[in-house]
Specification:
By secondary structure, the chain is an all-alpha fold. Helices cover 74% and strands 3% of the residues. The chain has helices at residues 2-34, 38-51, 69-78, 86-112, 118-134, 136-139, 145-159, 163-177, 184-193, 197-222, 228-235, 243-253, 275-304, 309-329, 338-348, 351-369, 378-401, 405-416; strands at 238-239, 260-264, 267-271. Strands 1-3-2 form a 3-stranded antiparallel beta sheet. α1 runs antiparallel to α4, α1 (2-34) runs parallel beside α5 and α16 packs antiparallel against α17.
Length: 417
């Protein structure tokens, strides 16, 4: 038994090492290409301004919430302020993201240790490693791994019945990228169906407190200018990579609608006769789908609350992932790095789901790496729509797989009639 445990430990160490080495190699091969790109420029300049004593929102524009500054400035702090050379900063930012990805792997180990066999543990780590390596050109040069780590910490804290820690981690994630907010209702329903009412109070206080404390210094120093990052995103158009824009672009290539693209807000957006309609419908669609998900989530958690730990973890991971997917597919922006948000949770699901996630990562890499949206390359638009429809199918598949049995029974009766 001891020999078997040591063998598993060696396998785990090997997988983690392969992930670290693979990401480092990809990072070094792409660093010269990425230096000077839009996102890395923002991180580099923002961290430089901050260390010069300038304040975001007041002295320089920042399109992100305030806690996003932490991963921007960490490379300079580690280098004791000496990382003024762009290439040194980029290299340290690369190492930072490799560290965040490795932390994700260790957190996944913590989750699977609750219920999984050794074989399942290895499978989860292998799939996570494959996901990260496939999308590594995107994953390594954006700061999205930082809020992703915070959401995974929140999941681990919920499973460990530490709601205050879950709330704090979730709140810091919201203060870094906003999107983790969609997980708070899911975690609330989880505690409610398990009759952990004190935990609900703690997770909400932790979330609100972390957001408030993250925003407070900037609210005091910049006043109403703090929320300029919300105006920035409100004014953004329909990004070409979003689900509806991808469909409109394809219809345009078939000669059925007029369309042009414009560069703005760090992305390429489309301009078409359908833009205003789509932008008006998307928030309504988000609300409808999200409420439907929460109702299903409540019934499913209630049904499974007395079953095995495996079932409880599996359900919570699934609905955490569905909440993120609903936010992504109903968003007017769907940048390639959004895939980073979901890969840790996808690695924890069933084998068939993980395989489809692998296809999504591959199509995301191809779509992001080749062709030009500016020129509306037909093949690139095809890859874009393939990626988007795979993510849509992935969302529907997981949702249907985790429907509560009571709703499944109603659907079967209706189909039979």
């Amino acid at each position: 038994m001891l020999l078997e445990e040591r063998k598993i430990q060696r396998q785990i160490f090997s997988i983690v090492a392969i992930q670290v080495l693979g990401l480092l190699i990809v990072g070094l091969l792409t660093i010269f290409k990425m230096v000077g790109t839009h996102d890395l420029n923002i991180y580099y300049r923002s961290s430089l301004y901050l260390l010069e004593g300038k304040l975001p929102y007041r002295d320089f524009n920042l399109e992100y919430p305030p806690f996003a500054l932490l991963p921007f400035v960490l490379p300079r702090i580690v280098a004791l302020g000496l990382a003024k050379n762009y290439y040194i900063y980029a290299f340290l930012f690369l190492l930072e993201n490799i560290l965040f990805s490795t932390i994700n792997m260790l957190l996944l180990l913590r989750v699977v240790s609750v219920y999984a066999s050794q074989r399942q543990t290895i499978r989860v780590l292998v799939f996570y490693t494959l996901f990260t390596l496939i999308i590594s050109p995107v994953l390594l040069w954006r700061y999205d791994l930082f809020p992703t780590v915070l959401t995974v910490v929140a999941l681990v804290a919920v499973l460990s019945n530490r709601p205050t820690l879950a709330g704090i981690s979730l709140g810091l994630g919201v203060a870094a990228k906003l999107y983790p907010l969609v997980l708070l209702p899911v975690f609330t329903v989880y505690f409610f169906t398990n009759k952990s009412y004190r935990a609900i109070l703690n997770i909400w206080l932790g979330t609100i407190g972390a957001v408030f404390l993250s925003f407070l210094p900037f609210l005091i120093t910049t006043k109403d200018k703090l929320f300029s990052f919300l105006d920035y995103h409100k004014e953004r158009g329909l990004q070409i990579e979003s689900l509806p824009a991808g469909i409109i672009s394809l219809v345009h290539k078939w000669g059925l609608i007029e369309l042009k693209t414009i560069a703005g807000y760090g992305s390429r957006n489309i301009v078409s006769p359908l833009d205003n309609i789509v932008l008006a419908v998307l928030p309504l669609l988000l609300i409808i789908l999200y409420i439907s998900m929460l109702v299903s989530c409540w019934y499913r958690f209630r049904e499974e609350r007395y079953k095995s730990e495996l079932m409880k973890v599996d359900n919570l991971v699934a609905y955490t992932l569905v909440a993120l997917l609903i936010f992504i597919i109903t968003n007017k922006v769907f940048s390639p790095q959004y895939i980073v948000w979901i890969i840790p949770f996808a690695a924890l699901l069933k084998l068939r789901h993980a395989i489809l996630m692998l296809a999504i990562c591959i199509t995301t890499y191809i779509m992001a790496s080749f062709g030009s949206f500016r020129e509306l390359d037909y093949v690139k638009i095809l890859w874009l729509n393939l990626r988007n429809f795979l993510i849509l199918g992935f969302s529907i598949w997981i949702f249907l797989d985790y429907l509560p049995s009571s709703i499944n029974s109603v659907l079967r009766r209706n189909n039979a009639n």
